[in-house]
Known about the structure:
12 strands; four-stranded antiparallel β-sheet
Amino acid sequence: MSDTGSNGRADKADSAQAISGYGSGGVETVISVDDVTRQVKEMAEEVPVSKLEALAGADPYVTIENLHAGYGKMEILHNVNLRVARKQSLCLIGPNGAGKSTVLHAIFGFNNIFSGSIRIGDGADKKDVTKLSPNQKLSQAGIAYILQDKSVFPGMTVEENLWMGGFLKDQVNEAKQAAEMIFDKYPRLAARRRHQAKVLSGGERRLLEISRALVMNPEVLLVDEPSIGLEPRFIDMVFEILHGLQHEDGKTIIMVEQNAKKGLEFADIGYVLVSGEVAIAGSGDELLANPKVGQLFLGG
C-alpha cells in the first residue's frame, strides 16, 4: 500500500514556476523523500508518552505500547507509542517509508509484531489484542480496516458488497439487516443498491468501502489514504462522511493520509512519523501551524 505524498512537476516553460510540494500546496523546489526524511529527523522532538496521553485525555481507548513490528524478519516500527481516546481522531503523516501504513497493519494484524502491545477499551476493561487475528480483531475488538482504493468487488452489486462486509455475522440475515441500516444512513448508496460496483463514481466507491466496514458496527476505524485517487469534490464528501462517523456515531478513527493538510484539518491529533518512529506529535491545529511541518508536508 502506498505511503507517499504527491510531488508536482515544474512548468517546462518557466523554471521558476511554483510546483506541488510533498503534501499539498506550492513550493519553489521539489523535495525528495530522502531530503524530507533527513529534515524531519533534524526537527524531531522527544515525544514522551505523557505528551501522547495528554493529547488523548485521561483514558485512551486505543493504546500502543513500545511497539516493534514489520514484515518477515524486517523491523519497520521501532518502539512506537500511540494514544487515541474514544470518539477521537488521529492522523499519521510523514515521508514515504516512514511506517505510517505499517502502524495500521500492526493494529489490525496484517504484519509481524516482535514486541510491545496493543490494547483496546475503556478503563479497566482494556483488552490486549496484540496477538489476535484480523478476523478476531473485527469480531471481538470492534476494529475495522478501510483499505485504499479498489477494494470493492466490481462484479457484485452495491448490496452484495455490503453483505460481504458482514461475513463474520452469525446469520446471513444479520448482514442483510445491517446493510439496510447502511442504506437508511446513506441514500446515495440506496439509490444504487442493484448497480454493479464497477459503474460507481470514485466517491461512491469510497463510500461503499467505508460502508462495508460499518456493517460489523466497529468502534475503531483504521482508514488508509481516504483521499487517494479522488477528485477534490469527492475528497470533501469522504471527509464529511468520516466527520459524521466520528462526531455523530462516536467512532474512533486512526488515519493515514497523503494529503497532509486535509488530514490534519480533520484530525484531533497528528503524529509525524519518520524511519519507523514518532518524530513529532501535537493537535492537528498545532501541526498545521508548525512552520517546519508546513514547509515539508503542507506546501507552505
